[in-house]
Amino acid sequence: MAQVNESGRSQSASQHQKAMAERATTLIVWQDASVRWKDGFEVIFKRAALYGQQIVVTDHADRVTSNTMPEMFQYMREDVCRYHDVPEIANAMALHRPDPLVVRAIMNPWARCALEASCMCPSNYNVWVIRHCVKLGGNHRCHRFDQSALTLLTAKLYGEKRYKVEIPEQHKHVRVMRGDRLKTYFQD
């Protein structure tokens, strides 16, 4: 994928992402519509500024090995066994500090993975890899695409210190409420 800038030169996706990260002065925030911020949420922004990232991991998270196809481990040249006890990230909300370490070790490889069919979207992708996430136990029972990639990258970078980039459950300053409906959303 390439874009053409004002001077007519082609710009690769990673260069484009780098340019976007350079424009962010404090934090890059991703969240989907299911995220609800609560009082005291500022602590999450402070932790992101301190540790480089903050990402939701729920108390009931599955292991990343359960919800990641083997092709992604192969693409990233990682041993599945090393990640057996790593809980997957709930990729509903993430804050990233655009410093060189986070950009080079997390954001760039994550974007590169998204552009590579052999990483983000396994060759045997079909409805099966989504529907079988409800089954208990086992490795590679389904695939969580960008969520799987982000989990592997953060686990690789932070290792046993990954707890620093996880939003602690005890804070309860953010909730993920899938399927939530607000009739009065625009009436405040």
Automatic annotation (TrEMBL):
UniProt name for this protein: MetK_2 protein
Taxonomic lineage from the root: Eukaryota, Metazoa, Spiralia, Lophotrochozoa, Mollusca
PANTHER family documented for this protein: LD39211P
Superkingdom field: Eukaryota
Organism: Elysia marginata
